[in-house]
From TrEMBL:
Family matches, as SUPFAM superfamilies: GyrA/ParC C-terminal domain-like, Type II DNA topoisomerase
A Pfam family hit: DNA_topoisoIV
Isomerase among keywords: yes
Record organism: Roseospira marina
Single GO BP term: chromosome segregation
The keyword ATP-binding is assigned to this record: no
Active site: 132 (o-(5'-phospho-dna)-tyrosine intermediate)
Name this protein carries in UniProt: DNA topoisomerase 4 subunit A
Site (Interaction with DNA): 52, 88, 90
Enzyme Commission numbers on file: 5.6.2.2
Signal sequence extent: none
Length: 757
């Protein structure tokens, strides 16, 4: 007998390790790493320079390529290649799209990239491929990177460790608020609209004087966003203050428009500025769609006459149209009015994402500028100290020129001898040995002494600056004033574009202005064909029908009305007045508009009147009162209201006010030729069901029901005349009674002649 022993699998080679980990823990750990990477390294801007990593790397790569504002352009493909090859290992399309946006004057308030070629337009057209376009940096971008060579910020290794890149820009420009930011991360997002640089500088100046300045005082200096596409800001001052105080909110922005007078009392409306991030072509397409669907009855036409500037022409339907009412209608239904959200969720100086209020954002910029000032000052002091050390060695050499020359000529190790003889440092000795012969002129010695004195004075001044906090903040205030001087309101680019308007008063636009309302006459045949004629003619003549068909009912309505169709299955079907086919033909089967079963007869068609009530009855003599609002269905299948008993059919739908005055009694007549009149308040008001017994029937069916006013008596047609029975006493009773024979001359078909619907 042989015993087999199962040997364990060999351990993995190459130093690999296999660990048993719950799936939930492994997924959570990896998703958290992904979320943090998205938040910190991709989607949220840094509060100090207002840039995302891709933007920062784009600017740094262009700086490395020496694409200065005064220099030449380079192909965007070259820039994108350097960015994805050295700094940003992502797709070239994403990097190029980010670059294009930095160059679009309608997308950013202060472009950081100057483009040459097709960089898209406000219509929403895309930029040309990056192999066709060229770019260079703007003066704003240059200010953003001022001091990179002076140890102003920290550098870190790139993704492959071969080079270094800045972790944040020195940002001698308030880019976060000036250009705004948009980003969606994992579980959080940021949305900051652009602002005016001059107003930002005014708010910064106030904070330099008092870091505890209340938000209300800052908002007085920075009253709201300033969008590159202009427009009119119509948010209330209180709402703006609240948004800036919490870091969250929204700003209501409207297009700018003017009224142009034409001849013969006509006019047209011209839109010259549209809201931020609204594509003009899609906006016009939306207006055109509303026109096609007859949702803008006050507007006749829309035209795009834009060239370099925006010019959208709106032609009113008539000279009597109120332009403000027309624009209010457009503001409500199109992107001529938008809401720009504010969510100042940014990475703070420690790289932690959080929502800041306006004061915190401004203070973060000032603190960053303070840190940059200190680091640049210290870097300059180090440079000065090194230069002074070298100049000190030069002066010693001039004072002992003959001995220095002898040592260099005769000694085997002149550097060591120079250090020992004249008590020099290693740096000084190396500088003397590297000195050119032409520098031994007397004039050069004088210039060295002059440079030494100047650097010594500068060194003392910088040391005093580092020691004096007040002087540092004064210097930062001067830098802020310089930003305002270079980019503020006195420049064409710095002028405020978005007008600060008042919050609009809520305007009630009448329904006549919102919907195209036309009178129509609806004709329904017994076979279920429906059509509408324009207007309310006194006589409809002799309408044509298919062979074997005839008139069922004629009603007067408006295109804005809802029509309620009652069928013998007890269901109500809703038909929109503007969906009924027009013309003098046969129309179309109503069963194509609503799903009425083929075995159900059409009982009644009437205009829906909100708040009205109707009396429903079935052939078994049961019925109830229902509010019309309960009869309106939302689908083509209709709404079940009256449920007839087995073998019975719904057959009657009567208004409670057939003559405009609500009745107080119900008159019923059956096929057994019995008439019963009883008070209306004895009939229950229900929403659905079989109802209550209106009239007791034995071996008979209900023929007709009508609502009347007792004081007016009971009327019915008799030939070309109308007969009225004033004394109804013989037929008065209670609900569910048998009734009595009708009065003399009552129609032999046992109906009241329609009773109106």
């Amino acid at each position: 007998m042989t015993t087999t022993t199962k040997t364990p699998p060999p351990p993995p080679s190459g130093g690999e390790e296999i660990r048993d980990t719950p799936l939930a823990d492994a997924l959570g750990e990896r998703y958290l790493a992904y979320a943090l990477s998205t938040i910190v390294a991709r989607s949220l801007p840094d509060v100090r320079d207002g840039l995302k990593p891709v933007h920062r790397r784009l600017l740094f790569a262009m700086r490395q390529l020496k694409l200065d504002p005064t220099g030449g352009f380079k192909k965007c493909a070259r820039v994108v290649g350097d960015v994805i090859g050295k700094y940003h290992p992502h797709g070239d399309t994403a990097v190029y799209d980010a670059m294009v946006r930095l160059a679009q004057s309608f997308a950013v308030r202060w472009p950081l990239v100057e483009g040459q070629g097709n960089f898209g337009n406000i219509d929403g057209d895309n930029a040309a491929a990056m192999r066709y376009t060229e770019a260079r940096l703007t003066a704003v971008a240059q200010a953003m990177m001022e001091g990179l060579d002076e140890d102003a910020v920290d550098f870190g290794p790139t993704y492959d460790g071969e080079e270094d890149e800045p972790r944040v820009m020195p940002a001698a420009f308030p880019n976060l608020l000036a250009n705004g930011a948009q980003g969606i991360a994992v579980g959080m997002a940021t949305s900051i609209p652009p602002h005016n640089v001059g107003e930002i500088c005014d708010a910064l100046a106030v904070l330099i004087d008092n870091r505890e300045t209340p938000i209300s005082d800052l908002v007085a200096k920075l009253p709201g966003p300033d969008f590159p596409t202009g427009g009119v800001l119509v948010e209330s001052a209180a709402s703006i203050r609240e948004s800036y105080a919490t870091g969250r909110g929204a700003f209501r922005l409207r297009a700018r428009w003017t009224e142009e007078k034409l001849s013969h009392g006509l006019f047209q409306i011209v839109v010259t500025e549209i809201p931020y991030q609204v594509q003009k072509a899609k906006l016009i397409e939306r207006i055109a769609d509303l026109l096609t669907n007859r949702k803008l009855p006050l507007l006749a036409d829309v035209r795009d006459e834009s060239a370099e500037d925006v010019r959208i022409v709106l032609e009113p339907r008539s000279r009597s149209v109120d332009p403000k009412t027309l624009m209010e209608q457009l503001f409500r239904q199109t992107e001529l009015e938008t809401r720009a959200s504010l969510n100042m969720n940014v990475l703070d100086a420690d790289g932690v994402p959080r929502v800041m209020d306006l004061r915190e954002v401004l203070l973060a910029f000032l603190d960053h500028r303070h840190a940059v000032l200190v680091r640049r000052t210290r870097h300059r002091l180090d440079k000065i100290a090194h230069r002074l050390e070298v100049l000190g060695g030069y002066l010693i050499a001039y004072l002992n020129l003959d001995e220095v020359i002898r040592i260099i000529r005769e000694e085997d190790h002149p550097k060591a001898v120079l250090i020992d003889t004249f008590d020099l440092t290693d740096v000084q000795a190396e500088a003397i040995l590297n000195m050119r012969l032409r520098s031994l002129r007397k004039l050069e010695e004088m210039e060295i002494r002059k440079e030494h004195d100047g650097l010594s004075a500068e060194q003392a001044d910088l040391q005093d600056l580092l020691a004096d906090s007040g002087r540092r903040w004064t210097r930062i205030g001067e830098q802020v004033a310089q930003i305002k001087q270079d980019f503020g309101q006195h420049t064409d680019l710095g002028k405020r574009r978005t007008t600060l308007g008042e919050a609009p008063v809520v305007t009630e636009v009448p329904i006549e202005a919102m919907v195209e309302r036309e009178p129509i006459t609806v004709i329904l045949s017994r076979m279920g064909w429906i059509r509408a004629l324009k207007g309310h003619p006194e006589e409809i003549g002799d309408p044509r029908f298919k062979d074997g068909d005839s008139l069922q009912t004629v009603i007067r309505a408006q295109t804005t009305d809802k029509l309620l169709l009652f069928a013998s299955n007890g269901r109500y079907y809703t038909i929109a007045g503007d969906r009924i086919p027009r013309g003098r033909g046969f129309g179309e089967p109503v069963r194509l508009m609503v799903d009425v079963p083929n075995d159900a007869a059409l009982v009644d068609l009437h205009v829906h009147r909100p708040g009205a009530k109707r009396l429903l009855a079935a052939s078994d003599g049961r019925g109830f009162v229902v509010e019309e609002a309960e009869c309106v269905g939302q689908t083509k299948n209709g709404k079940q209201v009256l449920t007839p008993a087995k073998g019975a059919v719904a057959m009657i739908s009567r208004p409670l006010d057939p003559n405009g005055v609500e009745g107080d009694h119900v008159a019923c007549v059956g096929t057994h030729r019995k008439l019963l009149i009883f008070p209306l308040d004895q009939v229950a008001t229900l929403t659905k069901g079989r109802g209550v017994t209106l009239m007791r029937l034995k071996d008979a069916a209900l023929s007709d029901v009508i609502v009347i006013r007792k004081a007016d008596g009971l009327s019915w047609p008799s030939g070309e005349r109308t007969r009225t029975e004033s004394d109804l006493t013989p037929w008065l009773g209670n609900r569910a009674a048998v009734g009595k024979l009708p009065p003399r001359g009552f129609p032999r078909d046992n109906t009241f002649g329609g009773g109106g619907s």
